[in-house]
Design brief:
It is a single chain. This protein has 180 residues and is mainly α. The chain contains eleven helices and no strands. The chain has helices at residues 2-13, 18-29, 35-47, 52-68, 72-85, 90-102, 106-119, 124-136, 140-153, 158-170, 174-179. α2 runs parallel beside α4, α5 packs antiparallel against α6 (90-102) and α8 runs antiparallel to α9. The protein is elongated and about 65 Å long.
Length: 180
């Protein structure tokens, strides 16, 4: 509430303060009943022609909102803009990769997911989704490798452990599957 009040006060003094618009969009994104306000401030941010990083933040908000509504085309467009404007943001790459995977564009999804790991090797979600994509492609050895990479960062992650055990079993490594 205090952050919101401070940002609204800044905007009442200077309605073209682009960072305040972007910050409000991000703040409202986290509140389930304020999604329309998040959209409004993200769009306003883009209308003010912000720097790349601020614009990327607005596109990320819009991509997340589109994903919540299962609007695949808009989700892909917004997350593609996010990674173009902020190429060093691992969360943008993760979100873009997940959106591509959700659209069943599995080979394309691997690139941003791999980039997310390159930018932040502790990003266990990226390892998990690479493994899932490799499972869908029936490439179990590479799926196992992805799950193991994630487990190096989060050794007790139940999703990684379960998927690793299933794949170990699929390739006949029953002993290793039980150990997972």
């Amino acid at each position: 509430k205090e952050a919101e009040a401070a940002l609204l006060k800044v905007l009442s003094i200077d309605p073209a303060r682009v960072n305040a618009c972007a910050d409000l969009a991000s703040l409202y994104l986290g509140e389930p009943t304020r999604k329309e306000e998040a959209r409004k401030y993200a769009l306003k941010t883009l209308q003010l022609h912000p720097s790349n990083l601020v614009a990327a933040s607005a596109h990320f908000v819009l991509g997340t909102l589109a994903s919540d509504k299962n609007d695949t085309a808009t989700t892909l467009k917004e997350f593609a803009a996010t990674v173009k404007l902020a190429p060093d943001n691992p969360h943008g790459h993760l979100s873009y990769g997940l959106a591509l995977a959700k659209a069943q564009k599995y080979p394309a999804a691997l690139t941003p997911l791999t980039r997310a790991i390159a930018l932040d090797p502790r990003m266990t979600q990226a390892y998990l989704y690479i493994g899932i994509i490799k499972d869908l492609q029936k490439n179990y050895p590479e799926a196992i490798q992805a799950y193991q990479g994630g487990l190096n960062c989060a050794p007790t992650n139940p999703s990684l452990l379960m998927n690793l055990a299933l794949d170990q079993r699929r390739i006949g490594n029953t002993e290793q599957a039980v150990g997972s």
